[in-house]
Amino acid sequence: MELYEFTAHELMDKLASGEVTSEEVTKSYFDRIKEKDGIVKAYVSTLEESALEKARKVDEDRKAGKPVSKYAGIPIGIKDNMCITGTRTTCSSKMLENFVAPYNATVIENLNKEDMVYLGKLNLDEFAMGSSTENSAFFPTKNPWDLDRVPGGSSGGSAAAVAADLAPWTLGSDTGGSIRQPASLCGVVGFKPTYGLVSRYGLVAFASSLDQIGPLTKDVTDSALLLNLLVGHDEKDSTSMDFEKKDYTKALVNDVKGMKIGLPKEYLREGVNEEVREAVLAVAKKYEELGATIEECSFDVGKYATSVYYVIADAEASSNLGRFDGIRYGYRSEKFENLKDIYRNSRSEGFGPEVKRRIMVGTYVLSSGYYDAYYKKAQKVRTVINKAYNELFEKYDLLLTPVSPTTAFKFGEKSENPIEMYLADICTVPVNIGGLPGISVPCSLDSKGLPISFQLIGKAFDEETILKAAYTYEQNTNFRENKPTFKGGNN
Question: Has 154 been annotated as catalytic?
Fold first, then answer.
């Protein structure tokens, strides 16, 4: 095996034993990026010079016998909506194309303490608004399993990079499924933590009551390891929860005996591809074989979640993106005669069609005369959805659902129909509405050779139960033997 094929925890063991150096591992990834990223296009920018410099420093410290973190020298890719001091943070938007971050996001500060190595910044749907990475202002990222198909979104670059061995693991952000859906379409593990568990400071805001940073990894063990670094109270984020630190790797136990898992029937009905449905039912059967109890249940109010999401998320986006006005930072139009022209032209030229669509919808639902009819009502329905989740979790330890109603779709297939594209998140959006944790775990391939994944949803702040169940499934199956084929496209 090549170094870039190993999981992060396997690379940690090799570095700790002296079998390889961080410089060798880092070079292996940049060689792979040069070989494959020309067709996958996961990276917006790479940081080879600084990455190799950091790797050599870690190697010197290890050789000198200095105490180093077990994470030291392990490469990682970062979604390009998280700030790293002195690097471009573009959000894959013309609006921020030349913006250089003056500070680090809190999650980056956490990784810095462990001396991790940044490979580069990863592509996304502009300002994290989309489900296919077709909305990037720069280029679409391609799915390594089939280059004619999307990798999902908005963390499409983060998911594709892990699937294509362009990074051992990456950070993404999840507002309505933006970690889990691309993880599903690319056949990797994607974890969305409970809202408030990971600091959002330094993450460019889309929808502040929904956004959450999380890991995309090759296996569940790596997910737990990276989660250990991300979680923690942060005074710079008013929504950050103050909990005692946990070691999530302790949850990696191969045992689900006695666990009660609910299977909401609404997630397996109309709109869900037959092969996806069968794959999720097969996962349910596997859990039964492993000693868990599977019981069909109902989550009828989930049908309102997508509508609620696109009112609340767009309203918050309208407010958050008001700061990009062509004055303080970001793109400024050269065509103006007065201040109003600067605002209008800078925003018209700097934002792409999907971002403008959501800003306009958000402004509308917050406007006088419509606030009560849309935004206030959406918040009330959000409360109803949360109550329904609480009732289900009185009976069940976890809920098992699909992640995406389909496998990866072709470029252009949904981009002309925003409603159809929005429904790609129908299985993931309710989790964000409830602020709950959820994981996407690959389980099989469809008849076209494309990955299918299942989702486990847990109680708020009960990441351990999710990790335990996901790890148990992974240990008793062999999906990772499948590898992307890079078929189609330019190949």
Answer: yes
